[in-house]
Amino acid sequence: MNTIKTNRLILQPVSPEDANEIYAILSDSSTMYFFVEGTYTLDQITNIIEEDQHKNFHYAVFLQESNKLIGKLTFHPWFMKDTYEIGWIFNKNYTNQGFCTEATKAMLDYGFKKLHLHRIVATCQPENIASKRICEKLNMRLEGHFKKCIYYKDGIWWDELFYSILEEEYR
User: Fold this and answer.
1) What's the confidence (pLDDT) of residue 107?
2) Fewer Cβ atoms within 10 Å of its own Cβ: the N or the C terminal residue of the chain?
3) CA 54, CA 170: separation in Å to the nearest integer?
């Protein structure tokens, strides 16, 4: 994938120049609350970007009007043929403005129309109301609620919701 443009956004594979802005998002503890990994260091982000240069599984989301990086999508093959997983994280200053829905919808369009995928999946914790809403806005179907399946830390286990959408449902 090269670049995808929406009404307000530009999506493109992450590049080394994006590291500091992605770090600003992924180093914020409140933004990373629902991520088992916790916050990331700049070195970790730099390594992820370097490893991704030929895979294009991570996409930077920029505002068209200012070219400001406001979020990151992950879009990569899942274990089954023609199936991808999508994930998202956005700068907390740019949430509740429809940017994530706009970006993820564009990525679903790309997946189904250009890659000819069969299925796209997404997961989140039940308490992550914002991510649940995104899945619902994308017309993804809740396929499972896995009880205490993710070990967080200190004896705490999280539930996980599993959503998906098939190509024929997306049309």
Assistant:
1) 98
2) C
3) 28
More confident residue, 1 or 64: 64
Q: In the chain, where are the structural domains located?
A: 4-170
Is this structure's pTM higher than 0.90? yes
Bin 67: left if φ > 0, else alpha if -120 < ψ < 50, else beta: left
In sequence order, the 6+-apart residues with CB closer than 8 A to the CB of 161 are 123, 124, 125, 126, 132, 135, 142, 144, 145, 146
Q: Kindly list the distances between the CA atom of residue 102 and the CA atoms of 66, 109, 145, in Å, as whole numbers in the listed order.
A: 17, 11, 26
CATH number assigned to the domain covering 4-170: 3.40.630.30
Give the pLDDT confidence score for residue 1 in this predicted structure: 67
For 86-143, what is each residue's pLDDT tens digit?
Answer: 999 999 999 999 999 999 999 999 999 999 999 999 999 999 999 999 999 999 999 9
Cα 137 to Cα 98, 116, 128, 133, distances in angstroms: 10, 21, 14, 6
132 in Cβ contact with 126 (< 8 Å): yes
